[in-house]
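Q: Hi! First time doing this. I have a protein sequence and I read that you can turn it into a structure. Is that right? Here it is:
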Amino acid sequence: MDVQKLLGQFLGSQGGSLGQLGNLARGGARPGQAGAPGGSIVDQLGGLMRGPAGGAIGGVLTSGLASQLFRSKGIGKMGGSALKLGGAAIVAGLAYKAYQAYQANNAAAPALPGAAPVPALGAAPRDTLPAAAGTAFLPQGEEDSRARLMLSAMIAAAKADGYIDAREEEAIFGRIEELGLDAEEKGFLMDEMRRPMSVDQLAAKARSPEIAMEIYTASVLAVDIDHPAERAYLDLLGARLNLPAELTAEIRRTADEAQA
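A: Yes, that's right. Below is the predicted 3D structure, encoded as structure tokens:
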């Protein structure tokens, strides 16, 4: 199972979205222009996001599986940058960025016990993510295991408030059948839907503060944080993950900016 691709599809950054972006990129730009046919999809996207097609692209980028299956809004504003990354790198990058902002805004607060040092928040544009690959947020060789845990966290959060009843779950299973996934990917999603991880199980997987931040970030991306039951779930999850309230608030703010 290509768990990185599956997570990317959940976030709206890969799979079908790329195909739709390709169609958009092939129209409207003159040869030699940024966004003209012939370049890579990322190169084309760079020009298109600055042109009149930007609004349409923003809509495509919010069409991830999580937004289709649950109440997630998907990845919006940061979608252009996120297209260059694997699924795990998006969530890890959001967690990394939130932790940088937390440290910058809470200078008197100590670093999380066991967390690796991170550089100070620079002057990068707000719609970019720090490179998490090779850091404690996404160590080499752990990309797939992190992506699988992020997917589990997203599905657990989406089911946490009881909004998905048996009838809605069957409808979601039907949509999963129509997604063009292979048998292993479908089986993984359906198993996770039937037996989502508990808060305690997720907390037990958090072997480091960075993993804890990623679990929380993935969970935020899967739900409507304005919904009282889902907010209560996030509060409980943050407490079990031993994340300071100021940090969970920063993760929610960073995720909300990405979903805007």
